[in-house]
Structure formats: structure tokens, C-alpha cells
Amino acid sequence: MGIVVLTMKASVIEMFLVLLVTGIQSNQEMMKKMKRPKFTVPQISCDVRAGKITNVEFIVKCPPGCQDPRYHVYGADVYASYSSVCGAAVHSGVLDNSGGKILVRKVAGQSGYKGSYSNGVQSLSLPRWRESFVVSGETARADQSPPVPGTAAQPVTVTQAPGTTAIEAAHTTLPKPSPSAGSTASGLRPQPAGQRSKDLGEPALWKPESVLLDAGFVPKEELSTQSLEPASQGDPSCKVDLSFLIDGSSSIGKRRFRIQKQFLTDVAQTLDIGPAGPLMGVVQYGDNPATQFNLKTHMNSQDVKAAIEKISQRGGLSNAGRAISFVTKNFFSKFNGNRGGAPNVAVVMVDGWPTDKVEEASRLARESGVNIFFITIEGASENEKQYMLEPNFANKAVCRTNGFYSLTVQNWFSLHKTVQPLVKRVCDTDRLACSKTCLNSADIGFVIDGSSSVGTSNFRTVLQFVANLSREFEISDTDTRIGAMQYTYEQRLEFGFDEYSTKSDVLNAIKRVGYWSGGTSTGAAIHYALEQLFKKSKPNKRKLMILITDGRSYDDIRIPAMLAHHKGVITYAIGVAWAAQDELDIVATHPARDHAFFVDEFDNLYKVVPKVIQNICTEFNSQPRN
């Protein structure tokens, strides 16, 4: 009996030991599973900039389509933190346009970043920037790859936001991706009742203002990340000098005026305002216009929005024409922040219709290189049109009557729908036809040698040269205008600046010029051109004289050449065959190397055309546009 009891006790003890060992093994397996959480690589959008992420090193997943030029990249190999993370990855060749995972490492700022074209992405140049980053393709799964050598011991910390306590800041330490730093389902924030939970198998889209959740860190709502980068320099793809002419007349009322201000705020928010991008100023008009703030007053969207909020209504009539004239003469000046190299855009907002005429003021604005847009809100009904001072005023005001520059809004409560279309058009600098350029802002007078030494055949070659040059310019009554005269001992005006306003008419007029024959009095020809051609030049036009001759002048050229220079006429001297180089240098504007050209025979004149155009544009681009 005792033996049986002992045997039963031994069996019980044996079963207990087996259960104990089995339990320990199961517990160890569970601990292993708990210690090996799945690492989820966060997905970011193409427009996320490296400076918005405070981690020194991180792995992210880029979506397809980041080769798009709207995602700006600055530099090559080493990129400014103002760059799109994913755009830089495509530029560097780490990713193609289909997206994927990348490893990003922050490095010190550079004294300059040089742009280049690579892998379908055109990166831009940028001056000194305080922070840089490099991209690599070491994107193996974070739960299988070791931490980056030399960095595993360094935690990544979100910059402590103003007003954050030391205890809150202590919770923002993020370990770098490593085998022991993963995210688990238990680390997720609880979903509010009635809200659909996200599929945990899909990577969440990371927002620019959030930190990377690659270590199971749960951010507190009261804690905000602080960007390491300086304030935005503006969107360089929308570099325009923009003036809003807002209607402050009494008829608009306080409520509509507030809607108008909200519209300006929305535009400022949409535009990335900054010194390298668009700049914005506001002029309010009633009886008379007044500048609320100019182009150089505010250098970012936030400050512009704050300034708009402070604008109070002036009252009075709705004298939009007077406001356009004011903007042309005063607003777009260097003193007020006009940058010269940026297109000038004026957006005129009017409630109903103006109480003065806009046609003449708008014509002067166009000739000064101002691109006028017109937004008409609650325009005149058929019964009200009898009260309009100037019918069809919008078409008389805008830069071009092709519909691009005019926007009509049925009522004030629909005005907000115009924000995106307007911003898109204003930033489309290739279509801003009224901007002054080297090809659309001059009065060009050709002074043609018709002496006997030229001959009939060579004279036709000279006319072809004149036509080839004219063909390069944008010709209209408000753009570049062409005039021509011929000289021997005497002078003859072939056609003046105001005679032809289309390119085809100018080219046909050149073809009709007849060969004269005679002597060569170049000095008298220059004097005649100043009196008969350039005296009728518009004051806001650049005056260009292009003189073509094949021999030495019989009269003095020094005094007429000095007089041309004194009157602000830029002279290009083209010599052929027997022309004297010393005379060409005297006639040409200083420096002569940029304004005097010589070819040994008439058939080589065509070679000079691109050189002359290049020098005209180089000289123009070195001067302020207005």
C-alpha cells in the first residue's frame, strides 16, 4: 500500500514538473513575440520637405509620381532641407518615379547648392541653407537590418516647442529604426466611438507637421513639432510682383468688404509668398486710391494675411481707372519693392462696374509691362448697363481679350471659388503676355544704307537681314514697334513706328522698300532718324537704332552719334564689306564690342542676327523692367 502511494506521488510530481517546464517555454515564446513587434515604415507625400521632419535619420516610403516639377528640389547629391524628400530621392537616382523606401540622413548646411538635371528632375540652385540631407537606398526591412553604424546610440529628439514642459519634452525622444524599436498595435491611439478604424496593414499617410511614428511613440496633442528650417523663401515657380486693387466704395457694404478681404486672405494662403517667389501688395480704391501695403512690406503669407485683416473700408465711389493709373505710376517702383526681373501683375476687383473710365489708364499700364486681370463681381444686369460710364470695361482693361485675364463672379458668396483659378493664371508666367521683355518693349528704327556701292542684289539681302531681325520681336501697337528709313546723300522715311501694328504688315512693308542709290552721308542719316523716327517714340519704350552701311561716310558722324546717345537711343552699327571699323565704333553705343558688328560680305549678314538679338536681350535683362 505504501509503495502504491509513493508511486502516485512520483507521478503527480512528474506531471507537475512537465506542466511547469511547458509553461515556462510557452511564456518564453510569448515574450519573444512581444519583443519582436512589426516595424511599419511611414508613408509620406511627395511635397513633404526634409526640414519638416525633426529626426536626424529616418526611413520613409515615397509614393509614385514624385518626379513632378512642382515638388521642388534644391542641390545635387547633398540637398537643402527645403527640398522635397521624395523629389530628391528621384533626382539622386535612389528611386524611380514609381516610389519606394529610402533612408534619409541629415547633415550640416552648405554655403551653396548647385542645381542640375538628373533622372527627369530639374533641381534648382540655392544660396546658403542651415541644414542639408542625403538620400540612400539602404531600405531593407527595419526588423531585419541593423542600425546605421555609429548612430544607434544617438536618440532622435523632436525640438521642444515653446510652452512645452520639460516632462512633456522628455516623452518626445525617438530611438532610431533598429531591431528593438518597432511599433505595435498596442501603441496605437484608441479610436473614438463610432469612428471606423484604419487597416493596420496599410502604412498611414504621414502629414508634414507630424513626427515619425516608427518607434511606438504616441505624440500628445498639445505638443507641436518645430521645423528646423528657416522661413519659406517663396515658390520660385511663381515669381511675380502682384498688386491687388480692391474695391472700397460705399456701395459695396461692410459684409461684402469682409468677403473681399477673406478672398485676399485665401489667395495669400494659397500663394507661397517669399523673396524667391511671389510678393504681394494691396491698393484700396474709392474716390482715390491708397496703398495698404507694398511689395516689400511683408515677406511671407502669414504676415500678409495679418495685414489684410487690419484693412478698413475707405468708402466713396468706385474709380478703378484712377487706381490703375496710380498702380502703374507709383506701385510698381523699385522703392516699393518692384524686383525688375519679375512680371508685374495687377488684379482689379470691382463690385458691379467702375464709376470712371479704365481704357486709357489700362493702355498705359499694358505699355509699362503691367499684366492686368479683372474680377467683376455681380456685374451690371441688362437694365443696369445704361448707367455704365464705359461699356465692356473689362475687355478694355485687361492685358489680352482672350478670356485668360477676365473672371466674372455671379455673386459675392461665390467669390471663394475664384481663388484657385486666379492663382493658377497669375503664376503661369509664360502666359503673362504684357510683361516687358527684350522682345516686346522697344521702338526699333532701321537706318539702311542705299548708296550706289551696295547694288540692287545686295540691297535685297540687306532687306532680308532687316526682316530676319524684325521677325524675332513681338510686334503690336503696345509691344515692339518697327520703323525704317533709307539714306544716300539724302534721306527718306520708309515707314514710321505707328504705321504698322502687326508682324505680317511690317514684313510686307520691308519687302516693298525700293533701292535708291547715291552717296553715303551717315552722319546726316543719324540726325534725320532722331528727328523723323525717334521723336515719335513712346516715352516708356526702349529706343533702338540699327544702322547698316557698306562704306565710309562722306560727312561727320561724331556729333550725330553723341546726340543719339544723349537722347537715350541705343545704337547698333552693322558694317559690311568696305565699312570702316573705326566709324562703326564711333556710331555704336558704348561698349562698342557689344554694339558694333562687321561682316566681310553681304551674304554673311544672316550670321549677325542671333548675336544682335542676344546682345539686345542681355542689355535689357541687366536693367529694371519698369
Automatic annotation (TrEMBL):
Keywords: Disulfide bond, Extracellular matrix, Glycoprotein, Neurogenesis, Repeat, Secreted, Signal
Main location: secreted
One cellular component term from this protein's GO annotations in UniProt: interstitial matrix
Compartment(s): Secreted, Extracellular space, Extracellular matrix
Lineage: Eukaryota, Metazoa, Chordata, Craniata, Vertebrata
Gene3D superfamilies the record matches: LCCL-like domain (2.170.130.20), von Willebrand factor, type A domain (3.40.50.410)
Annotated signal sequence range: 1-26
Assembly notes: Binds dermatan sulfate and chondroitin sulfate.
One Gene Ontology biological process: positive regulation of cell-substrate adhesion
Domain of life: Eukaryota
Domain VWFA: 241-426, 443-612
Function: Promotes matrix assembly and cell adhesiveness. Plays a role in spinal cord formation by regulating the proliferation and differentiation of neural stem cells.
Protein name per the record: Vitrin
Gene of this entry: VIT
Region (Disordered): 172-205
InterPro entries: ECM_Assembly_Org, LCCL, LCCL_sf, VWF_A, vWFA_dom_sf
Domain LCCL: from-to ranges: 40-133
